[in-house]
Design brief:
Keywords: Metal-binding, Oxidoreductase, Zinc. The protein is built from 14 helices and 15 strands. Helix content is 31%, strand content 18%. It has 2 domains: 215 residues, Alpha-Beta Complex (Quinone Oxidoreductase, Chain A, domain 1), CATH 3.90.180; 169 residues, NAD(P)-binding Rossmann-like Domain (Rossmann fold). The site of one zinc ion has 6 residues, from loops.
Amino acid sequence: MRALTWQGKRDVSVETVMDPVLREPTDVIIEVTSTAICGSDLHLYEVLGPFMDKGDILGHEPMGVVVEAGAESGRAVGDRVVVPFGIACGRCWMCTRGLTSQCETTQVREHGSGAALFGYSRLYGSVPGGQAELLRVPHADFGAVEVGTELPDHRYLFLSDVIPTAWQAVDYAGVGLGDTVAVYGLGPIGQMAARIAAHLGARVYGIDPVPERREMAARHHARVFDTDDDTHEAIREDTAGRGPDAVIDAVGMEAHGSPLAQAAHQAVSLLPDAIGRKMMEAGGVDRLSALHSAIDLVRRGGTVSVTGVYGGEASPLPMLTLFDKQIQLRMGQCNVHRWIDELLPLVEDPTDPLGTDDLVTHRLPLSAAPDAYESFQKKTDGCIKVVLDPAS
Ligand SMILES: NC(=O)c1ccc[n+]([C@@H]2O[C@H](COP(=O)([O-])OP(=O)(O)OC[C@H]3O[C@@H](n4cnc5c(N)ncnc54)[C@H](O)[C@@H]3O)[C@@H](O)[C@H]2O)c1
Ligand SMILES: [Zn+2]
Ligand SMILES: [Zn+2]
């Protein structure tokens, strides 16, 4: 089959690789019909290189049709399924409490990590990813979610990551009717977080340096701002001088505006892998400008909900401010499976309350993936969300 593989820093290519095979009775193989590129893939493309191996298949936002089904998978050939990015058993202590991203059956203990993820480096189990023609889905009885047959792929595809991740970010922010929330970063995750918060009745402020990302968020009820010096002032003025009840960080470790940490990122990604890994594990290499801004902006007694991914072990936090402002900090990998039942009716709703029809800016063949990674990272060509179609 053809698959998008990691070859080195900012270097991915489509190669012919072995077809996946069933290994466990709970596995299925799917033929992938749509598979998206995520901001999390950009971390692998750039800073998490020391944990990648040449030839690793990327991708963790796939959907498709079952072409082979293990005897205990509970799925049948022909089922149309969407696949959550985290791999979970559905039966362990963590899974039964909704913490599927911490599944005790698939945890990658060797690296002290939570549940295994598709296409996400040694840290998360080196599981072949979904930017490919075919994908083996382990624990398919829980992790291949059957969906309807009538709506187009993009209505269901984002149940794999973007929509549950954004939903969890808003849930952790604790905002609802009449509350105020600012969303830092208007990539796909921030877009959906802003829409979900508005859908739940909150007043939403969206902040991002990229004009077309601000425009998209403005189409869905957010008041939008560039990352200017006076942005916080304007938002405080609009919230009786206090700042919003919650701030969602949907940027993560590669934020613009952290020149020192950016230099550290460049250094780490150029080091031999073994030394680079040590630096990441022991050092503070996150670019923290968005997180620091979130902590500054949130009102006293408010909540910062971190959904952007961070990776350094010793990244410094402003403890004085966090403590003095009495800020609640919530974060983590999304427990995708936990939210699916609530979200399925929303993505199937004919009125499209979350605006899933307005997120994808590019649908491209798999062969275009290397260019798409570059344009998504550099934010050229109006690129906000790319969906790859392995069959075209
Ligand atoms: N917690 C989870 O389970 C989970 C799941 C998926 C994605 N993520 C993470 O969420 C983050 C966003 O993902 P995405 O797909 O939307 O990616 P993205 O790269 O498209 O979005 C990041 C956005 O942040 C903006 N930005 C950069 N620096 C900024 C700053 N200082 N202030 C304000 N905005 C800034 C960029 O312009 C961009 O629009 C990534 O870190 C990704 O890894 C987490
Ligand atoms: Zn993703
Ligand atoms: Zn489990």
